[in-house]
Structure formats: C-alpha cells, structure tokens
Automatic annotation (TrEMBL):
Biased composition (Low complexity): 84-104
Lineage: Eukaryota, Fungi, Dikarya, Ascomycota, Pezizomycotina
Polar residues biased stretches: 105-115
Name of the protein this chain belongs to: Zn(2)-C6 fungal-type domain-containing protein
Keyword annotations: DNA-binding, Nucleus, Transcription, Transcription regulation
Location in or out of the cell: Nucleus
Example of a GO cellular component annotation carried by this entry: nucleus
Annotated Acidic residues bias: 127-136
Length: 671
C-alpha cells in the first residue's frame, strides 16, 4: 500500500467497469474480477483512502451501526438470491449475521456465503441487461409456487363429512364408468382414493363432485371446498401444474352445481383451463409430451370448442399441429382402453369448428356474396356434407372399438353435426343466430328464405334435432349420470332449434296469406309438419328422463342445479309452443294431451325463480305457476295466462317474431 499524509490507501472493493455498470464485482485474481474476465474488459481497481480513526468513545457506536447495516445488507442479498436462484450470495449464518470469506469474495466451497458488504454501486445480485449479455433468469419476478398453499389442511374425509370407503366407491365409479364419456382425464388403476386426495387434492374433490348424487348432503360443502382451492391456489397464488388442469377439466365436464344465468362459473372454469394450457406451454412445448399432458391438451381443446357454440361465445382455443400430433398419438395408445375414444371426439368437434369457420367467412363477404346467396349456401352445405360423409366412415371404424355407452353419445354428436351444417336456414327468429352468421338482408336473401332448398334444410333440421333428443332418451338409466354437461348443452340447443324449425316451416307454408283465409290443403301440410315434430310428446319424454338426475332435490335446490333449471325452462318453453303455432296459422293444431295428461313433477316454479334469479322470465313463469305450481300445465290453461299478460284475446301478440326470439334467447344457455 502507498502512504500519503499518514493515511493508508486501500483498493476499492469494485473495479471501475463494474462500478459504472452497477454490477456485483467478484475478484478472480489479484487485479482481475470475474465479470471483466468473462467480458474481456480491462479491470482497474482505484485506491480508496481509509477513514481516520476517531475518538475511542465513538468506535463502539460506529461498529454497532456498521454491524447492523452489514446484517441487513446480507439479509437483503440473501432474499434476492433466493428469489432469483443465482449461485452468488446467500446468508448461511445461524445467528442472523453474514459469514464472510477471507478475501471478501464467496468461497468456492461455500456457495451460500455472502460478502461482508455490498460493493459500491452494486445492490443485489442481478446484473443489468447489457447488450452483450443474456437476460438473467427470474429477472421479471419470482416463479409461481410449486407447492400448494393448502398443503396439510384437512379435507372432507379428515373432517368426517365423507368416509374413506365412500370415497373409494366414487373414485372406482369414475375409473370404470365416467371416464368413457370424457377420456381426457384418466386415473391409474392402482391409485386409491386415499392416494389421490393426498397427491392431488383438487382432482380428488372434482372426481367426488362428478360422481356423487345430486341430492347428496355434502354437495354444497364440496362446491365451497373446490372454490377455496381454485381461488387460493390458482388465482391468488398462481399455481400452475398438470394436476390442477386435470381437476379443472373434470369440473367442467360434469358441471352441475351451482346453476347460474349465462353459466358464468362454467365459462370461467373453461377460461382457466385454456389459460393454464398456455401457462404450461402444452400447446407449444417442443419434444414429446407425456400421455397425461397430451390428454389434458386435447381435453382442453375439446371443452373450449364445445360449449362456446351453444352459448354464443367466441372459441378460446384453435386447432394446431400439436393437437393433431397428440390426437394421432392417442389413436395408437394402448395405455388405457378409453384412449381409443379420444380421436373420434376431437375429429367431430374439429369438423364442427370448420363448419362455423366456413359460414363465418361467407358472412364476412357481405354484399359480394349476398347477390348469389342461395348458390353460395348450396355450395357450402354440399361441400360440408361430402366432407362429413368421408368423416363418418372414419368415425364408424373408430366407434367399433368403443363400448355401447360411448356409441349412444356419439349418435348425439353425429346428429349435432348435421344440425351445425344446416342451421343457417334459421335466419329470422333468433337474435344469437343472426349475430353469429350475419346474413345480409338483400333481395337474394329474401329469395333464399322462400326457396325450396331452405325448406329442405329446415326439414332436415327438424328430423335431426328430434333424433338427437331421442338418442339421449334411449340412454339407459344407469348411464345418465355419466353424461357430460356438453351433451346437456347439445340437448338444450336442440330443444330450441326444433320449435324454430317448425315455426319457420309453417311460415313458409302459409306465405303471405291471411290467417283467416288459409285453405284446407295448406292446413293439412302444416299439420304434417306439426305431427312430424311431435314436440310436446318429445319434451315430456325427455323431461321424464332428466327428472332421474334430480331425484330428492327440493324446489329451491333444483333451481341451483343445471338439470333442474333446464327442466323448469323446458316446461315453460313447451307451454309456449302451442300459442306460437296458433299465432302463425290462426288455428290450434297442437294436441293438448301431452302436457295435460302427464304427471307433473314436484317442482315449485316460484322457488326455482327465486333460486335462479331469472329476472327476464320471472313474470311469465310466476303467472304460469298461478295455474299449476309444478309448471307443466295444459295448453288451454296456459292460454288464459298469456292473454292476461299481453292484453290480446288469443295471446297472439306475445308470439310475434320479436317476442318469440326473446323467448328462445332466454332459454339458449340451458341455465
């Protein structure tokens, strides 16, 4: 060291280059730091004069302050090191003070030690983003947690609400029966309920929620437990892992409680699934995914494209090469028998998305296509039908490997594809349809509305919607609880499309004739349409099937159940069907027998209205309840209610095109 005026000079702890960059300076040799050696820069240490020692009585106080500062600095560096994950500095002292190496740098044998102070101009251990240096890992914040914030908290089994024997029974049912309808989440045969609840607690709760009966005493408690996991782990703590994604998929597939107008919570769960796929980068991850990852990716795609079409929301996930690759892998998988059902599901839903995309492109052509609208529609429908015929051959081959329970549901999917191909024929009675397809109101459009081709499309719609509902009715009783919410959504859509098709066909048959001067041959043709639809008998049969899923629920509880709410809305929609037909024809062609003769269910409409808070339909449904508290009343009785509401003697004012559209719109979201 040099001596000047009795003051000894020592080297600065940081070199000039690191000081300017405000980076940590760790010496490598006597006159060269690690950073300068790595970057090939000149390393110069300036002299720093040491302060004169002052009076002895100040030494103790200064030393204490310096010790506190160094301790706090060491703790700060240790915290930052723990967040960023660098192998730089970390506190290793047990008494709260920082351990220091002999030469002021971290020892190679003690990577967790910290220097006794922070180099001048250097705070923390993260270097700034130099142009010639890569961005340090963790620079933008800490990584999401890898452990659950609810780990160790007792669950419904620990607290005695569900015995482990019951849990094992429900998990076994899920493995053997439920998985066939949604093969994207599979549990290993060796995994017991006790193992599942300890390893993946949210997935355990989701499986129990899917399999327990609707009237089970812990249903509300189970829903609260599930939401606690979702809000605490996924939302608040930003946990992201495959187990959570699989649990969310199960919750979506068998979502039943609570029912909400617009299905807000179900849509939120679907959005969480899509977001988690992106956060886990399953859709772009290079290399081979595990089979569970592939199933989760395909399940998210399938769920995210099924429901939005029914509730008129944009699709949140697109098909890509990764999905095609995983689909092909699952087709060849022999890990689980249910894997053979995955490819048919993906193919059918992907084809429906293709149909919607082609019609959307047609609508975007606007005036360019409207001049030849009927020709364009014929071309698109014909192309989609030809594509579907080739797809059916593939699906039939795939379905031959699946059990009968899966085949029944695939029949629903086949009919739904036929509906999707032709539903652009419904253009004047439904607001959501107009917003989805956006057909221009041109002379060509009016020509298409009255064309024989549109009449043919409407006839096919009538028959396929009826066939879809009958396919569900034919499902055996013991298989009904395994049906997913996506099939329920298809049934709900069919319940709306069928009366729309009947109404549109009747208006085509009547044309511009006055209701008072419709000839007998036209009425006979209209009666053939009404008889072919047989809508009220179909609704009654479907109602009897759906009632099996809500046995034991009170009126209030049915209003909080997706199927219970659907049953209530079905009864009201069926009551409005006959007045709608009479409003078009001027005569009553609908038999009153089905609604009058059936045994009404023990559902209090007023309780359901209070539970579901259905403001739009509350007035009409309360009036219906005044005639029959259980909702399904005869058409003759219902006419009196509607007349008092509308002020018209025959009730026809209520069933104008605008109000009929509102009726259908309020029913469209099956809840």
């Amino acid at each position: 060291m040099n001596q000047q005026s009795g003051i000894y000079n020592i080297k600065r702890r940081a070199c000039v280059t690191c000081t300017k960059a405000k980076c940590k300076c760790l010496p490598q040799t006597h006159n060269l730091c690690q950073r300068c050696a790595r970057l090939g820069k000149q390393c110069v240490y300036l002299d720093l004069p040491e302060r004169k020692r002052k009076r002895k009585d100040d030494d103790g106080r200064v030393g204490a302050l310096e010790g506190k500062i160094e301790e706090l600095t060491a703790q700060l560096v240790a915290l930052r090191n723990g967040v960023n994950g660098h192998n730089g500095t970390a506190s290793s002292s047990t008494n709260g003070t920082a351990s220091t190496s002999i030469n002021g740098a971290a020892s190679s044998t003690e990577p967790s030690s910290v220097p006794d102070s922070v180099p001048e101009g250097s705070y923390g251990d993260a270097e700034p983003l130099d142009a010639d240096e890569p961005e340090p890992e963790g620079y933008h914040g800490r990584e999401p947690p890898t452990t659950s914030v609810l780990e160790g908290i007792s669950d419904i089994v620990d607290r005695g609400f569900l015995s482990i024997h019951e849990a094992e029974t429900y998990v076994a049912q899920f493995k053997s029966r439920f998985v066939w309808n949604f093969p994207f989440v599979v549990l290993p045969p060796s995994q017991t309920a006790d193992m599942l609840r300890k390893q993946e607690p949210l997935l355990f709760l989701a499986v129990i929620s899917a399999t327990i009966p609707s009237a089970h005493a812990i249903r509300k408690l189970l829903a609260d437990e599930i939401m606690q996991h979702i809000t605490s782990r996924i939302v608040a703590s930003s946990e992201r892992n495959l187990g959570l994604l699989r649990a969310l998929l199960v919750l979506c597939a068998w979502y039943r409680y609570p029912s909400q107008r617009g299905n807000v919570q179900l849509v939120l769960l679907l959005d969480l699934c899509v977001n988690m796929v992106h956060d886990l980068r399953l859709h772009r991850l290079k290399g081979e995914l595990t089979t569970d990852q592939q199933r989760a990716l395909l399940g998210t795609y399938w769920a995210a494209t099924c429901l939005p079409r029914v509730i008129d929301r944009p699709t949140a996930m697109k098909r890509n090469k990764k999905i095609d690759e995983c689909c092909q892998n699952m087709a060849m998988s022999t890990e689980y028998p249910s894997d053979r059902c995955i490819r048919p599901l993906i193919l059918t839903q992907s084809f429906i998305c293709t149909i919607d995309s082609s019609y959307k492109e047609f609508a975007e052509l606007g005036a360019d296509a409207s001049s030849q609208e009927e020709s364009f529609i014929k071309l698109m429908v014909g192309a989609n039908l030809r594509h579907f015929e080739s797809l059916k051959a593939t699906l039939e081959t795939e379905l031959s490997k699946c059990p009968n329970s899966v085949t029944n549901l695939f029949h629903c999917n086949i009919h739904y594809i036929n509906i999707a191909i032709r539903d652009l024929a419904l253009d004047d009675e439904y607001i959501s349809y107009q917003s989805r397809h956006g057909l221009a109101n041109s002379r060509s459009t009016q020509s298409f509305k009255t064309s024989a081709f549109r009449c043919s499309l409407l006839w096919h719609l009538l028959r396929h919607t009826k066939a879809l509902i009958n396919a569900y009715i034919d499902i055996p009783d013991d298989e009904l609880p395994q049906v997913t919410v996506f099939t329920i959504a298809q049934i709900c859509a069919s319940l709306v499309i069928l009366p729309r098709s009947v109404s549109a066909l009747l208006k085509l048959i009547v044309g511009n004739r006055s209701r008072a001067s419709i000839p007998d041959d036209v009425l006979n043709e209209a009666k053939a349409v009404v008889d072919e639809a047989d809508y009220l008998n179909l609704v009654v049969r479907l109602y009897d099937r759906l009632r099996l899923l809500i046995v034991g629920l009170s009126g209030q509880e049915k209003g909080l159940d997706v199927v219970g709410t659907l049953c209530c809305h079905m009864s009201v929609l069926a009551s409005w069907y006959a007045p709608r037909v009479k409003a078009v024809l001027g005569v009553d062609l609908v038999s009153k027998t089905p609604l009058a003769a059936m045994t009404p269910p023990s559902i209090a409409i007023n309780d359901i209205i209070a539970a579901n808070a259905n403001a739009n339909a509350a007035t009409l449904m309360q009036q219906a309840a005044s005639q029959n508290v259980d909702g399904l009343v005869s058409v003759g009785e219902q006419q009196q209610v509607f007349s008092s509401y509308t002020g018209a003697e025959d009730g026809s004012y209520l069933f104008s095109d605008e109000l009929w559209s509102t009726v259908l719109e309020s029913f469209s979201s099956f809840g």
